[in-house]
UniProtKB/TrEMBL annotation:
Domain of life where this protein originates: Bacteria
Cited Pfam families: AXE1
SUPFAM superfamilies: alpha/beta-Hydrolases (SSF53474)
Source organism per UniProt: Streptomyces fragilis
Domain Acetyl xylan esterase: from-to ranges: 1-319
Name the UniProt record assigns to this protein: Acetylxylan esterase
Amino acid sequence: MALFDLPLDELRDYRSDSVAPEDFDDFWARTLEESREFDLDARFEPVDAGLSTVHVYDVSFAGFGGHPVKGWLRLPADAKEPVPLVVEFLGYGGGRGLPHEDLLWASSGRAHFVMDTRGQGSGWGGGGGTADPVGSAPAYPGFMTRGIDAPENYYYRRVFTDAVRAVEAARSHPLTDASRTVVLGGSQGGGISIAVGGLVPDLVAVAPDVPFLCDFPRATTLTDRHPYREVGLYLRTHRGRTEEALRTLSYFDAVHFAARGRAPALFSAALEDQTCPPSTVFAAFNAWAGSDKAIEVYDFNDHEGGGPQHVAAKLRWLRSYA
């Protein structure tokens, strides 16, 4: 696919038309306060993954509504003192996988906490193990329209809350340095990391790659790829509910969390990305409130973004922060 979105010089100045609800901050403060009424109950069970340089722990903690959420914590085997912490969120449809997967961050001398995404884990990778026990009104298959009838019911209210609690759980382990916490992820994981960057004020860095869940008004009308297309297909059947759906989505638009994010940030965008169009990524990047921010642009890539080259860029960049 050739370039289909705005030219790069226009992307660098692009701003979303999405408007944050007046009660955006109150909504999220109330949501997190309600979830913190439940004991975090973070548990770390050692796992024999057959590895000699990395120790793995099977983690559970209480997320939204006190619901149990799973994760993996991977630590350098020789860690005796607290080490910098990388908390990772996953792409759409994936789960935490198997304990021996993804050893990069632990191999770099950091603790690596990966959160299982509730209800997902059956689309790719090694699977997941976290249920989403909350039902919803009629929805299109997938996750984008679950509970879209109201912000209080929307699926990503639960996921974003789980993600904040995941940071709290990971920080509770004695070998993680809470003062050097980084959040990152690609696609859906990138969108979640932006949300956490706006909700957790003391992170040292945020690194969203080709992030999803950004600039819903533009994304849902610009691309016909899933997952954004799920919204259009829902509205094709539920005629007349566009305003209601966009109101709900406005509480979860990463653009508004970015406007509250102050940590140093490294974004990435791919100019041929039809899954997460580059203008939607730049909308979040340009909204990011912190002054220490950069974006890597991959001119001829689709949703794979920068791939291993961008992993190397993140490794270099994080040396300054964690």
